Structure formats: C-alpha cells, structure tokens
C-alpha cells in the first residue's frame, strides 16, 4: 500500500502595484504506481481492451514493443470511509466506484442514496448501489463524495475500482435519479479544499522488469514543478464531438522524421488507455514513411530494420516527440467516432495537466 503525502512549496507573487506578498501554496500529491498483470493474452487483446473503451474496432496496429501484452494500469490508494482501495486513475471516465476486489463495507459516514449506478466501459462494466461517503486522497478530505459500490464488475480485475478524473458530463445517465454526479475534483473545488480544479499527472515508465513501484504522482489543485521541466504548453479542450465529452484536444500536426503525416486531428487524452492510437490515414502514412508492415498475427507493425526517426505530435504550437523506443503506436482501422487516443505510452514521457477550471489540457517535458 502506498503512503499519501503532502508537500509544500513557496511561490512569491507581486500582488497589485503597491505590495509584494509571499505566500505558501499547498499542492497535494498522491503517489501512483503501475500494475502489470500480464492478463492481456496478446497485443490484440490489449488493443481490443483499449479501444473498446471508446467503442472502436481494432484491425491493425503498429509498434515495436512485444511487452505491450502486459495489461498496464496506473493505480492510486484512496480511502473511502475507513477502507483503503486500489483504484485505476482514469481521465477517460468520471464515476468513482469501489468493490471490484475488496468489497465496500458502508460505515457510519456512508449514506445509501437509494439509487443504482451503472457504467459501461466497453472493455468491462460495473453495476451497483450508489452511496455518498467521505474520501481521503492526497491528505485531502472530501465529504459526501458519490461512490458506487459494485455488485458486479465483469471485465475489471486486479483492482478495487476506478477513480474518475474525466469531465463530469461523462457521469450523465450513470446513476438513477441524478443528472450528473460531481467528480472527486469537482467536490475538492466546491468544498473549498483546492482553489483551482487542476489535476497534474506524472507517469513514469517502469525500468526493465521492475513493477509496482510508486513511480508516478497525481497533483491535486495545481501542478508539481519538480515533475516537469520548462513550461507547460496548454491547449483548449476541443469543441468537436465526440471528443468534447472527454479530455479531447486538437493536435495540429503529426510528424514522422519531421515530415507531416496528418494535420488537424482531434484526440482524447486518456490515462486509462495503454497505447497511442492514430487516425487511419496517419497510421498508413506512418507505415509508409517508416517502411513497416502490419503483422497480421500480433496486430503490431513489423520492420526488417527498426525505425530510427521520431514521431511527434504538435499540440498548442509545440512539438512533443517520441523516440522509437518510446512509441508504440497502434491504429484503429475503422471510421468510428474516436480514432485518436493519446494513452500511457505518450503520457509516460510528458507531464500532463487536466485543467477543468480553464477547460484546457497541458503538457510539459518530464523532469
Ligand atoms: C487475470 O485473469 C483471470 C481470469 O480472467 C482472473 O481470475 C484474474 O483475477 C486476473 N488477474 C489479474 C491480476 O487481473
Ligand atoms: C506540419 O509539420 C511539417 C513538418 O515540420 C511542416 O512542414 C508543416 O508546415 C506543418 N503543418 C502544419 C499545419 O503545422
Ligand atoms: C529522415 O529524413 C531525412 C531527410 O528527408 C532522410 O535523409 C532520412 O533518411 C530519414 N530518416 C528516416 C529514419 O526515415
């Protein structure tokens, strides 16, 4: 089990024209770690699971890393009532629920709302009873957080549930009798615990066979300057449907070896997706440019000589590149709604910021 900690840093600001104020700003950090279950039996199974989240069919994919058979999840230890649960950190969904592994035992702080909840993730689903209870995360307390208690959760194994960091609109229709369910971040803001609804995410790739280290961090109510270098580049949430329901952004250019393979595409930034999925045309151009073919058995592309050039995404006017050892890029060969997903393979290389208050997403190089 990981330990929840706070840290404090100091910032000096000039307040108005006449005075200068130094104030302490508290940023709340939550250690997260990557769980590798190896339960996905093939890279195709992994891709199918990734894409089923967005109801996308997978036909082919590209990537050089056979280790992608691993079923990767980033999880955090969150306290609900008096129990601690290991929950998937998910910016692609917004309900918070427990009970897939350790069962929820409602205590004195719990209230049964008399409502039912159901969320379908494509790759799995959950159904149960909706409670409100106290939640402790990163040393912060939330009262009356909507919490689902799973009765059944087919397809979701190895964890206790999910903490949803997606936009609140994704909770529409998930709980009987409620229009939407305020998210953990919404409640931290509305209860005055954080002053700006900002989530910072630092994912770190595992080294070798080393797993389950506390190798990542969530920052609640701000960003953690020790986790990134340089400045954060922000881009507004897209208004293009259906990307606007998620943390969707415009990617103005995709390049391979400095040559454009796609312009003006929308993408979902999703901590719950393992790989990076490109739009079909970009994927095909990528294959052509890198001299690869799709291996029909693995669903990944293969090369006689591994590619040596970088793949880069232009976001908010800045190019964020991945070296061949950093990218594994399958593509959804279908004309379905969501065909561009920026998953863990990208997020492990860049610090990411999910800013509800300003309706934007940010990226910066990892520290
Ligand atoms: C792996 O899959 C099996 C069979 O579906 C399941 O019983 C087990 O709990 C899974 N393990 C993990 C760590 O997800
Ligand atoms: C995309 O990137 C290429 C290569 O850097 C550049 O020549 C092109 O102008 C860019 N296009 C857009 C729309 O930014
Ligand atoms: C990258 O582009 C340059 C210039 O067009 C070319 O000479 C080089 O071979 C390319 N490298 C790769 C790995 O495709």
Automatic annotation (TrEMBL):
Keywords: Aspartyl protease, Hydrolase, Protease, Signal. It holds the Pfam family Asp. One of its GO terms (molecular function) is aspartic-type endopeptidase activity. The keyword Signal applies. GO terms for biological process: proteolysis. It comes from the Eukaryota. Residues 1-24 form the signal peptide. The active site is at 90, 270. Residues 74-364 form the Peptidase A1 domain. The keyword Transmembrane helix does not apply. Belongs to the peptidase A1 family. This is Acid protease.
């Amino acid at each position: 089990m990981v330990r929840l900690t706070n840290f404090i840093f100091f910032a000096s600001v000039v307040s108005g024209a006449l005075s200068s104020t130094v104030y302490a700003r508290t940023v709340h950090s939550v250690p997260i770690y990557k769980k590798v279950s190896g339960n996905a039996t093939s890279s195709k199974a992994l891709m199918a699971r990734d894409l089923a989240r967005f109801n996308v069919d997978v036909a082919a994919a590209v990537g050089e890393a056979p280790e992608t058979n691993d079923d990767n999840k980033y999880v955090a230890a969150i306290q609900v009532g008096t129990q601690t649960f290991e929950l998937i950190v998910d910016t692609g969904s917004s309900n918070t629920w427990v009970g897939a592994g350790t069962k929820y035992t409602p205590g004195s702080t719990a209230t049964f709302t008399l409502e039912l909840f159901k969320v379908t993730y494509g790759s799995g689903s959950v159904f149960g009873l909706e409670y409100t209870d106290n939640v402790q995360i990163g040393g912060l307390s939330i009262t009356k957080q909507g919490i689902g208690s799973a009765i059944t959760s087919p397809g979701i194994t190895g964890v206790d549930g999910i903490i949803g960091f997606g936009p609140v609109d994704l909770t529409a229709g998930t709980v009987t009798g409620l229009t939407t369910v305020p998210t953990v971040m919404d409640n931290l803001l509305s209860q005055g615990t954080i002053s700006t609804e900002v989530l910072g995410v630092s994912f770190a790739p595992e080294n070798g066979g080393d797993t389950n280290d506390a190798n990542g961090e969530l920052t609640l109510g701000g960003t953690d300057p020790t986790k990134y270098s340089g400045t954060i580049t922000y881009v507004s949430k897209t208004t293009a449907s259906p990307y606007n329901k998620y943390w969707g952004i415009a990617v103005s250019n995709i390049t391979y070896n400095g040559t454009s393979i796609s312009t003006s595409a929308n993408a979902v930034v999703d901590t719950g997706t393992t790989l990076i999925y490109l739009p079909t045309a970009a994927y095909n151009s990528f294959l052509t440019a890198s001299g690869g073919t799709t291996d029909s058995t693995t669903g990944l592309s293969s090369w006689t000589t591994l590619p040596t050039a970088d793949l880069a995404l232009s976001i908010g006017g800045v190019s964020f590149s991945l070296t061949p050892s950093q990218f594994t890029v399958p593509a959804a060969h279908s004309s379905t709604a969501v065909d561009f997903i920026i998953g863990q393979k990208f997020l492990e290389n860049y610090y990411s910021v999910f800013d509800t208050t300003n309706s934007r997403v940010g990226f910066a190089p990892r520290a």
